[in-house]
Amino acid sequence: MAPKRTKSTANVASKRPRRVIDLETKLKLIKDYEGGKSVMVIARQSGMSHSTIATILKNKNKVMEAVKGSASLKATRLTKIREGPISDMEELLMTWIKDQTQKRIPLSSMMITAKAKSLFAMLKEKAGSDDDVEFTASSGWFKRFKNRYSLHDVKVSGESANADVKAAEEFLETLDKLIVEENYLPEQIFNMDETSLFWKRMPEGTFIHKEAKSVLGFKAFKDKITVLVGANVAGYKLKPFVIWHSENPRAFKHISKHTLPVYYRSNKKSWMTQLLFQDALLNCYASEIETYCWENNIPFKILLIIANAPGHPPFVGDLHPNIKAVFFPPNTTSLIQPMDQGIIAAFKAYYLRRTFAQAIAATEEGTGKTLMQFWKDYNIYDCIKNLAWAWGDVSKECVNGIWKKTLKRFVHDFKGFAKDEEVAKINKAVVHMANNFNLGVDEDDIQELLELVPEEWTNVELLELEQECLAEEEAREKKTAGEEKELPRKFTVKGLSEAFADLSKLLKKFENMDPNTERFSLIERNVHGALSAYKEIYDEKKKQTKQTTMDVFLKRVTPPQ
Questions:
Q1: DSSP classification of residue 331
Q2: How far is residue 431 from each of residues 146, 195, 211, 442, 523, measured CA to CA in Å?
Q3: Is residue 275 classed as helix, strand or coil in its secondary structure?
Q4: Per the database record, which ranges form the HTH CENPB-type domain (predicted)?
Q5: Residues 106-159: tens digit of each pLDDT
Q6: Which uninterrupted H or E stretch holds 305?
């Protein structure tokens, strides 16, 4: 009998140790591949084998789902969730925890275990199960649960959430020293923060709110988006970053998301996650701020001051070599964070004013459209356009003023932002517009709507939300597999020609009504000036069409040689 073969000591010693690859690295490899690099080049640059890269690319969907679900970017394993009632309960519990932390509500281990027991009891009752599965929410389970879901960034404590004045004062001293030592300019100091917005909600007590309860679309009143806004001390406002639950909304048909007046991303819970914040900073704001610095002839050296929120990565300061991040101490944002000093309240008020102005315009166009019809037709694309408009209404003086409580320099000449006065003025205008529809609202109703925060999800709502998300995901996968991609919008000679013809007719109507010829001439010139970019596109398209027609003609009449 042949002797049993054994591995040599040399072979064992030379065996390459198993490499652990975290999600952040996998994301980078996927982006490199989608950016045009070949698997061979990626393997050579990363020092990984060809088969390892191929496996990561093959599992792209799993990787993306893991990070979309707020998995830690440093996680090294895509854990398969255990099946059974306890596993189902943990999924719902995670949704609840993320919702609470997104609202910055302090959590204790007692609150989490009590919610876990409540969810488990509900699921068991709904299943009508008579089995002996019990759940006690022991300390051992809680420890394993935190490890399974990488809950190290969720603050679990019983401390008071009262504003910490002393910590705020100490932080301002430290911040001022940093600004002086690093020689930061007002244009280089930024603050960002996110807020929830119920984009399709009407004031309580109005007829449309009551009527909506009886129609299928009432869930729209609970539909929210998350909006990340930011600005610097000099008054420059960053483009808003919007998160909604749908990756490709029907309202975006034939619209390239890159042409929207906001940065748009999706998350099935419409939450800000660490991955989305990282995406916002690296893929959106870094290039926008760099361009701003170049245009203003200042160094691209940025100080970003942000809240220590669950959706903000603790390593955010290491993401970009030109962006240094500083976190506000816990329980101080209401005192010293610029975005908490009234600018977000004004932004929401401007959004509401713009939406009501659109409703009035839509119902006065002679189409017979009612406010309820306008509300039903109002979609996320309309919302985004109004958001951009509202953010544009926030003045430079307002942006300057919100920094007075944060900085000890640069702000001495700033007037400050009278939040209550400004918001009250906007609310008064909204009340006037709302009562065009006999809604019977007053300024307190509008203020209550603006201050509305997302309610805590009930157990039943958590379960429904999870089921809806799964159904939407399945429908999206089927659509992606079975349908061709929709064609993006594009300019055509015919379409542009018809648009300019319609414009001429419209201007002619105004000319026939206006008794002041000089005024009309000025308006006509301004309108054509505003649309000059479209005119250039039209002229170029016509030139290309004529050239193509001539080439075809010459090809037909020229005899072959």
A1: T
A2: 47, 23, 20, 6, 31
A3: helix
A4: 77-155
A5: 677 788 888 888 888 888 887 776 566 678 888 778 888 877 776 654 555 443
A6: strand 302-306
169 CA to centre of own chain? 32
DSSP element (H, E) containing 303? strand 302-306
- What gap in Å lies between CA 168 and CA 336, rounded to an integer? 7
Whether the full predicted model's pTM is greater than 0.70, yes or no, is no
Question: Which ranges constitute the DSSP H helices of 364-458?
Answer: 371-377, 380-393, 396-401, 419-434, 443-450
DSSP classification of residue 36? T
E strand or H helix at 306: strand 302-306
Residue whose pair of structure tokens reads 């999206």 in the numeric block: 476
> With contact defined as beta carbons under 8 Å apart, do 396 and 413 qualify?
no
Residues 465, 467: Cα–Cα separation, whole Å = 5
Report the alpha-carbon distance of residue 243 to residue 224 in Å, rounded.
9
Instruction: Round to whole Å and give the CA distance between 304 and 206.
Output: 42
Instruction: Write down how long the chain is.
Output: 561
* CA distances, 253 to each of 106, 257, 314, 375, 479 (Å): 41, 10, 37, 20, 14
Average pLDDT over residues 481-490: 57
- Alpha-carbon separation of residue 286 from 280, 291, 301, 381, 472 (angstroms): 8, 9, 11, 25, 32
